[in-house]
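Hi all, long-time lurker, first post. I run a small reading group and we've been trying to get comfortable going from sequence to structure in the token notation. Rather than ask abstract questions, I figured I'd post a concrete chain and ask someone more experienced to write out its structure so we can walk through it together at our next meeting. Sequence below, copied exactly:
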Amino acid sequence: MKDHQLRGLVQVAESGSIRAAARAMNLSQSALTKALRELEEDVGAELLMRSYRGIAFTPAGEALLLHARLAQATLERAREEIRQLRGGAGARLAIALTPLVAATILPPILAEFRRAQPDASLSLEEGLLTHVLPGLMEGRLDFALALANPDDLPYEVLFEPLAQAQAVPTGRLGHPLAEARSWGELKDASWVLNLTDGSLGNHLLRWLASQGLEAPKNIVRCASLTLMLELMRRTDYIGFGPTDLFSDSLFSVGIQRFAVAPVPPPMSIGILSLRGVPLGSSAQLLARLFARRLRR
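-- Answer (accepted) --
Happy to help. Here is the structure in token form:
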């Protein structure tokens, strides 16, 4: 496999056709077609299906595309690292953060990182595992800080637990069930939960089942924290979130925690990165800052 062949494969996926990909790469269509056929011969499998409808990736093509994207991203990180060592432009970092981190420890860490790396370009994304895992696998993210159960993660992803996050039911100030003390009092309420893989919502439902407790029947599934908060603040929907997050005076405006007992065990919060792919020096620095603060 050669670099230009892998770049061609990635570009076809991004452009949607060989013709558009060739134009984006400043190649002739025949030259790109030849490179892709040579790649198919090298791996011994058909990668693309060509029809009057256009180009589609075969299962082998999808598998190779994932690794090709990661390879390109890893090489670009290496190029950036070398540029920095030679006095070139600042680093470019992309990380994902759970809202718990963003609302509590991100501001001082960002200030400290800026003092050490004033020229670095930093991109922040929300740390839902459904977004984090493909971002890491495709090389779009350097690392992530998220709530996770190590048993739910693929082998390719490393997880370094740093702290524990306890979660509780929450609802609007003055909620009619605010004085509830048992899960049975909440089972008929309306809930808004994130039920994506590895979420606190899934953690709650698994725990209720393990305790023989009846799960809520009326659940609105929501993967947006902003939408969840608005429903909780403006209606009688109940959510489930980290205690520390809802203890923050700015974040928890209009929200109160419910004192039900017992509560599910805490989830681990930590750094997720791709196994076998070392972080660049700037990413290492930022990860150390997060780790040091969370371990406190």
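A couple of things your group might point at:
The chain has a mean pLDDT of 87.
The first helix runs from residue 3 to 15.
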